[in-house]
Design goal:
Chain lengths: 380, 515
C-alpha cells in the first residue's frame, strides 16, 4: 500500500511538472534553430532569462506584460467554463480602454482615487457590453459566438480609429499637421501608482486580487455554480430549473468585462493615453488573444493563470532582450513563443490521458461492492 | 453444428476459449480472483453479475485491453498471449461494446472500413467493402444498407453494424457486452434471431447481461460472477431466474416488493386534454387526461415512442403544451418555465439520466444540490455554503447507499446504478409533492433495481403522487395502483391494479381495445 501511494504521488508530481518539461523541450528545439542561424543558444537564452528575470526592473517589466494577459485570462476562465468561446478579448479591451480614457479626459476635476475607480468601472462595463452583445445573440438567437466576437473585434478597432482621429483626438495633435491618432495624456493624479523607477503599477495587484475573486466566484457562489453547470451540461441544467440562456449571456458578459478592465488598466497604468496604429494589437499588444493561451496554460483555473501569465509575460519581455543581444530575426522570437505554446498545449493532452488512465483503473465499475453499503442492510 | 472448421463467413472456427485462474488486481481492488470460464463453438454462454462484479474486467482481459496478473488463456486448447485488441482480432475474437464505436457522419461501409487497410492501397475500396457487407448480411440475416449514414439509423441497426464490423474482421467468437441495454423489446427479439443464426453456424458467443429472462431465453450455459469470484457455471436448463438472482446478489431477492396498505388522498396532479408536439413534428400527445392522487403510483405502460417522453416533458415544462391544461395542487402550471414548476416541488427522474439528470463533470456533492443549490442551507446571499453542501452529500451517500470513493468524485466515474441513486437521492430528499419517474430502473442491476423500487414505494407511503413511466411491464405491475396504457399519444384505458393482467395490457399497448 505504501508503495502504491508513493507511485501515485510520483505520478502526480510528474503531471505537475509536465508543462515545465514541455517548455524545456520547446527551448531545446529553439536552440537547434539558433544554432542554424549561427547563434550560440546559451548566450541567447541567457539574454532571454536576463531580459525577463535578470534584474528588478526586468522582472517588473515581465509583471507589467503579464497583467493584461492575466486579466483577459480570468475572463477566459469564466467563459470557457461556461462553454462559451470568447475570441473577442481584443475588442473588449479596446472598448474598455476608450470608455475609461473618456472618463479620465472628461471629469478632470474629480479626486484621483474617484476618477480611477470610475474609469476602471467604465472599462469593466465597456468590456461587459462588448462581450454581452455576442452573449445575448448566442443565448437567444443561437449566433455562433466565435464568429460574433471576432466581428466585434473588427468593429471595436474601427470605433477606436474613429475616436482617436476624431472626437478624442489629442488637441495638441489636432493643432499640428502630423495629427498622430492618439488621445491627450491623463493628468498625473489619474495615473495608477507606480513602484518607481520601474513601470510596475498598481494594476498588477488588482489583477492578482481579482484572480482570487474569480476563484471565489466560480467555486463559492451560486452564480459560478450555474455558469459551470450550464457549461458542462445545459440540458441537465435546464431540467434542474436553471435559466440556461441567462447564464450563457452572463459568462460572455463577465468574460468581456475582465478584458475591458485589462484595457482600462493598460491606459491608466502603462500608456496614460490611447494611441492607435490602425490595428487592434497597437493598443492591446495581442493580449486579447495571448490571454486565452495563458488561461488554457493555467488549465482554466484563475489561480494557476497567475504563474501562466507570468511565464508568457516573461517570454514576451525576454524575447525582446534576446533579439537585441544576439540580433536574431524577430520571426524567430515569434516562432519560439509559438513552440512553447504548442508544446505546453500538447503536454496538457498528455496529462489528461494519464489522468484518464489512472481513473480507468480506479473506476468503480470494477470495484467489488463495499459490504458496508449494501442495500441489503437497509431493508433488513 | 456444421462439420467443417470453416465458418460461413469464410473464417476458421474457434472451437473453445478457456480462461484459467484469471486474476486481475487494481490498486486497492481485486477485480478478478482466480476466475475460470470457457465458451465453445455453437453456444451462447452468459456471464451474469451485478455492476462491479468483474464482468467487464474479465472480458477486457479476453479482448486484450487488460493483462491478467495471473492465469492463462487457452484458444482451441493452446495457450495464447493477448496483449492488445489487435491480437484478439487476429485470433478471431470480436467485442460489441455497450457504447457503440461508430462515426455518425460516415456511412455504414465507411465505418466498417475504418481502420482497415484498403485493397487498393491509398485509394478507398468502398465498393468492395459494401459487397462484402451485403454478403455477410445475407449469411447472418442482418438487414443493412451499406450506403446509409449511421446517424440515420436506429440504435438496433447501429448495433448490427457493430456485429458486421466484427464479422468483417473475421470474428469467430463474439463478446456482447450488455447488448440489450439500449434496445427496444422488438429489437431485442431481432438480435436474438441473429444470435441464434450465428451459433447455428458455429460461432461462439459470450453474452454479458443482468437481465435474467434474456439469459434464460438465449443462453445454453450461464456463469455468475460476484465480487470478482466465479460463483458457478450451469446449463440454463437446470436453473431458474430466482436461483440466478440469488447467486448474483448473494442473498434472497424479492421480485415483488411489499406494497403495504396506503390510503389514496387528494388529487395532486391533473392533466386535462393535454396536447403537444413531438420532436419529429408529429403530434406527441393527442389529448391526455389523467388524475394522480396523493399516495398513489400511476403506471404509464406502452411501447416506447408512443408519447411517454412527451408526457414527462409536458408536465415538467420542458415542452410546449399546445392545448389542454396541467394543474398541480390546484395551481395552473400549463407552460410555466421548468424553473417555476420545479419550485412547486415537482421532482423528475429523467429517462436519460446521464444526459438530463446529471452533470458528469460535477462532483457527487455538486450533483446532489443541482435542484436546490440556490436555496438555504446550500446558498445564502449568492454564496455557496460548502459545509452544508458537503454534509448533505455525506448524509445522502449514506442514506441511499451510493458507492463512491468520496463526495468529491466526479459523477462520470460512477457506475450507472450509483448515478441513478444520486438522481433519486436528490429528487426524493427535497420532499416532493409529485414525482415523475421515467424508466427509473433501466440498465440497473438487480440490487439497485430493488432499491429504487423500494424508495418509490416509500415515497408513496409518505403521500407523494407518483407517475411511473416504464416499458417494463413487470415493473409497472409490481408497483402501480392504477395503470394507464398509452398508445400513439392517447390514453387507451386506465386499468386498476386488480384487473391488470399482462395480456390485457399487452393488447392495449398494441392499440387494440378489447370490447
Amino acid at each position: 500500500m505504501k508503495k502504491f501511494l508513493q507511485s501515485e504521488w510520483m505520478s502526480r508530481l510528474i503531471d505537475a511538472l509536465l508543462p515545465v518539461f514541455a517548455t524545456l523541450a520547446a527551448l531545446i528545439i529553439g536552440a537547434v534553430m539558433l544554432l542554424f542561424l549561427g547563434v550560440n543558444p546559451i548566450v541567447a537564452y541567457k539574454a532571454l532569462w536576463d531580459g525577463a528575470f535578470g534584474s528588478g526592473n526586468a522582472f517588473a517589466e515581465t509583471l507589467v506584460k503579464a497583467t493584461p494577459l492575466l486579466l483577459v485570462g480570468l475572463g477566459i476562465c469564466i467563459s470557457f467554463r461556461g462553454d462559451v468561446i470568447n475570441i473577442g478579448g481584443e475588442g473588449q479591451m479596446i472598448i474598455g480602454g476608450i470608455l475609461a480614457t473618456w472618463i479620465g479626459l472628461t471629469f478632470t476635476g474629480l479626486p484621483g482615487w474617484l476618477a480611477i475607480t470610475l474609469a476602471l468601472l467604465a472599462g469593466f462595463l465597456g468590456g461587459a457590453i462588448w462581450g454581452g452583445i455576442p452573449g445575448y445573440l448566442k443565448a437567444y438567437f443561437n449566433v455562433n459566438e466565435i464568429l460574433s466576437t471576432v466581428m466585434m473585434n473588427a468593429i471595436a478597432v474601427q470605433i477606436m480609429n474613429f475616436m482617436m482621429r476624431g472626437p478624442m483626438l489629442d488637441p495638441i495633435q489636432a493643432a499640428k499637421a502630423s495629427k498622430i491618432p492618439q488621445t491627450a495624456r491623463l493628468i498625473e493624479a489619474f495615473r495608477l501608482a507606480r513602484w518607481s523607477p520601474t513601470r510596475l503599477h498598481l494594476g498588477v495587484l488588482i489583477a492578482v486580487i481579482l484572480a482570487i475573486l474569480v476563484y471565489i466566484l466560480l467555486w463559492r457562489t451560486t452564480l459560478g455554480y450555474r455558469i459551470r453547470a450550464v457549461g458542462m451540461n445545459p440540458l441537465a441544467s435546464r431540467y434542474a430549473g436553471i435559466k440556461v440562456p441567462r447564464y450563457i449571456v452572463m459568462s460572455l458578459l463577465l468574460s468581456g468585462a475582465f478584458a475591458g478592465l485589462a484595457g482600462a488598466i493598460q491606459v491608466y497604468g502603462v500608456n496614460y493615453r490611447m494611441i492607435t496604429d490602425g490595428s487592434a494589437s497597437g493598443f492591446t499588444g495581442n493580449a486579447g488573444f495571448n490571454g486565452i493561451v495563458a488561461a488554457l496554460f493555467g488549465q482554466l483555473h484563475p489561480l494557476w493563470s497567475i504563474p501562466a501569465s507570468i511565464l508568457f509575460g516573461a517570454l514576451l519581455v525576454g524575447a525582446n532582450q534576446m533579439q537585441r543581444v544576439v540580433q536574431v530575426p524577430s520571426a524567430l522570437i515569434t516562432a519560439l513563443n509559438g513552440l512553447v505554446v504548442v508544446f505546453v498545449v500538447s503536454s496538457e493532452f498528455l496529462r489528461r490521458r494519464r489522468q484518464r488512465q489512472r481513473l480507468a483503473h480506479a473506476k468503480m465499475d470494477d470495484a467489488p461492492p463495499d459490504k458496508t453499503s449494501q442495500p441489503a442492510e437497509a431493508s433488513a | 453444428m456444421p462439420e467443417s472448421n470453416i465458418l460461413p463467413s469464410g473464417k476458421p472456427r474457434i472451437d473453445s476459449l478457456e480462461l484459467r485462474g484469471i486474476t486481475k488486481r487494481f490498486p486497492g481492488v481485486l477485480a478478478n480472483d482466480h476466475v475460470n470460464f470457457d465458451v465453445k463453438a455453437g453456444e451462447v454462454h452468459a456471464l451474469l453479475g451485478e455492476n462491479g462484479a468483474g464482468k467487464s474486467t474479465l472480458m477486457k482481459t479476453v479482448y486484450g485491453l487488460y493483462h491478467p496478473d495471473e492465469g492463462e488463456i487457452l484458444l482451441n486448447g493452446k495457450p495464447v498471449h493477448i496483449s492488445s485488441p489487435t491480437d484478439s482480432i487476429n485470433l478471431g475474437i470480436g467485442m460489441i461494446h455497450q457504447h457503440f464505436m461508430l462515426v455518425p457522419s460516415l456511412t455504414v461501409a465507411e465505418n466498417v472500413a475504418l481502420g482497415l487497410p484498403s485493397s487498393r492501397g491509398p485509394l478507398t475500396d468502398l465498393d468492395a467493402v459494401s459487397k462484402r457487407i451485403l454478403e455477410l448480411a445475407d449469411i447472418y440475416g442482418l438487414r443493412i444498407d451499406p450506403s446509409a449514414y449511421v446517424w440515420q439509423l436506429s440504435v438496433g441497426q447501429q448495433q448490427r453494424i457493430e456485429i458486421i464490423k466484427a464479422l468483417y474482421r473475421g470474428a469467430a467468437l463474439l463478446i456482447l457486452d450488455e447488448p440489450t441495454a439500449v434496445l427496444t423489446p422488438q429489437e431485442v427479439d431481432e438480435l436474438f434471431v441473429i444470435m441464434r443464426q450465428m451459433t447455428k453456424d458455429g460461432h461462439a458467443l459470450i453474452f454479458i447481461s443482468h437481465k435474467l429472462h434474456e439469459v434464460v431465453e438465449i443462453c445454453q450455459r450461464v456463469s455468475v460472477l460476484r465480487d470478482g469470484r466465479m460463483i458457478g457455471t450451469r446449463p440454463t436448463s437446470e436453473t431458474t431466474k430466482q436461483d440466478l438472482a440469488n447467486w448474483m446478489v448473494g442473498r434472497e431477492v424479492g421480485f415483488t416488493p411489499d406494497r403495504g396498505n396506503v390510503q389514496r388522498g387528494e388529487v395532486r396532479l391533473k392533466l386535462e386534454n393535454v396536447q403537444c408536439g413531438s420532436d419529429r413534428g408529429t403530434p406527441g400527445l393527442r389529448g391526455v387526461s389523467l388524475d394522480i392522487h396523493s399516495g398513489e403510483i400511476l403506471g404509464i405502460a406502452g411501447v416506447s415512442g408512443n408519447g411517454q417522453r412527451e408526457l414527462a416533458d409536458a408536465v415538467t415544462g420542458l415542452r410546449k403544451i399546445t392545448g389542454g391544461k396541467v394543474t398541480l395542487e390546484n395551481a395552473d402550471i400549463t407552460n410555466l418555465p421548468p424553473a417555476e414548476i420545479t419550485e412547486r416541488m415537482l421532482s423528475y427522474i429523467p429517462e436519460e439520466r446521464m444526459r438530463d439528470g446529471m452533470i458528469k463533470d460535477f462532483t457527487v456533492a455538486e450533483n446532489m444540490i443541482l435542484r436546490e443549490h440556490h436555496k438555504e442551507p446550500y446558498s445564502r446571499y449568492g454564496f455557496l455554503n460548502l459545509k452544508n453542501i458537503s454534509s448533505n452529500a455525506d448524509m445522502l451517500i449514506k442514506k441511499f447507499h451510493v458507492k463512491t470513493p468520496s463526495q468529491e468524485t466526479l459523477a462520470k466515474n460512477l457506475s450507472g446504478g450509483n448515478i441513478q441513486k444520486i438522481v433519486l437521492a436528490r429528487e426524493i430528499s427535497r420532499s416532493p409533492r409529485v414525482i415523475i419517474a421515467a424508466q427509473p430502473t433501466r440498465g440497473l442491476d438487480i440490487g439497485a433495481t430493488e432499491y429504487v423500487r423500494e424508495q418509490l414505494l416509500e415515497q408513496r407511503k409518505q403521500g407523494t403522487a407518483i407517475i411511473l413511466i416504464s416499458e417494463d411491464l413487470d415493473e409497472i405491475l409490481a408497483l402501480s395502483d392504477r395503470i394507464a396504457v398509452i398508445y400513439e399519444g392517447s390514453v387507451m384505458d386506465i386499468v386498476p391494479r386488480s384487473e391488470a393482467t399482462p395480456q390485457r395490457l399487452g393488447l392495449l399497448m398494441a392499440g387494440v381495445h378489447p370490447e
